[in-house]
Amino acid sequence: MAETLVTGGAGFIGGNFVHFWNAHHPGDRVLVLDALTYAGNRSTLAGADNAELIEGDIRDTDLVERLLRDHDIRTIVHFAAESHVDRSISGPDAFIDTNILGTNSLLKAARAVWLAGDGIAHRFHHISTDEVYGSLGPDDPAFSETTPYAPNSPYSASKAASDHLVRAYHHTYGLEVTTSNCSNNYGPYQYPEKLIPLFFLNALSGQALPIYGDGMNVRDWLHVEDHCRGIEACLGQGKPGETYNIGGGAELPNLTVIDTICREVDRAFEEVDGLAERYPDAPAARGEKSEMLKTFVTDRAGHDRRYAIDETKARRELDYLARHRFEDGLRQTLRWYLANEDWWRPLLRS
Ligand code: NAD
Description:
Elements: E1 3-7, H1 12-24, E2 29-34, E3 51-55, H2 61-70, E4 73-78, H3 85-90, H4 93-114, E5 123-129, H5 154-173, E6 177-182, E7 184-186, H6 195-205, E8 209-212, E9 218-223, H7 224-237, E10 243-246, E11 251-253, H8 254-271, H9 275-278, E12 294-297, H10 312-318, H11 326-339, H12 341-349
Parallel strand pairs: 1-2, 1-4, 2-3, 4-5, 5-6, 6-10, 7-9, 8-12
Antiparallel strand pairs: 9-11
Helix pairs in contact: 1-7, 2-4, 4-5, 6-8, 8-11
The structure holds nicotinamide-adenine-dinucleotide (NAD).
């Protein structure tokens, strides 16, 4: 039976996608290829019974070719990447290696296996980001699929290069590709270096909540489950060679997100038994407000001011619409972290 290859499936979005696919396509087998970098975690895949994890690197073209042949892979969903902008500023090389060379390695393997002889029906779906479009002013129209690329960080530049390679393999060799450019994801299993889990866990341990600049940088927040549905729609209805923007319909300044996190932490301490004993250093454990931990720090170098997604095309062609309201999705996410300390606690020590 043909299997689906998910690269980076032990990471945040890839892991959620594996669980989503197992739940919605229980007859399908999923093969996860993941190098288990600091951001990859075996335990993210616990309970995904139809998935098998291969620990390996997407830059190993021979390995990828072997997996495509041995497992009769017809679909690749490519998440594997270095994904944290701050890390790309302090060390861009890993981003060039994995995001550009790694994507090229996968494309080469797919071309060699799928396009040989009479060819095999296939799909290569590439996960990209809205950050490739650069930064918007307050009144600029949202990014559409035809917005020119203008990446500003080593991370977004490496993703932009990978998007171009995916496009080129379609136009040059006829590889059947689709690409989705999504906005900021949030949800379960997100590594606690990203804003929402970092601020939530800091609030639980009474540590500062470091806000870049004036906190007014705007992002469009997308619940990871909505993103998974968007990818499913790209695989089902997306046309080869096309790109689709997937957003969450929740354009918010960071400060609003942080204030919402603070309120939700305070509320959780009122509603969930035993939190004051589990997290005695949290202001909320003493009846104080989490917002007292807010601290403004020097802005990130080259910090993009605003991202916004125009998802008209995904709505029209894929019937995609985000279902999660931000406040509800955030509360659900924070409650997931409270219920799954076994998942995140070891990551704080790594
Ligand atoms: P993540 O950092 O949580 O996970 C990345 C995964 O890729 C990890 O499991 C890691 O071990 C694996 N990996 C890294 N290098 C590898 C290599 N050379 N070979 C094999 N595996 C490797 O990232 P994420 O947040 O889940 O993002 C997934 C994808 O979505 C990325 O392509 C990212 O650019 C894109 N994206 C993410 C967001 C977001 O908000 N998180 C937004 C837009 C786009």
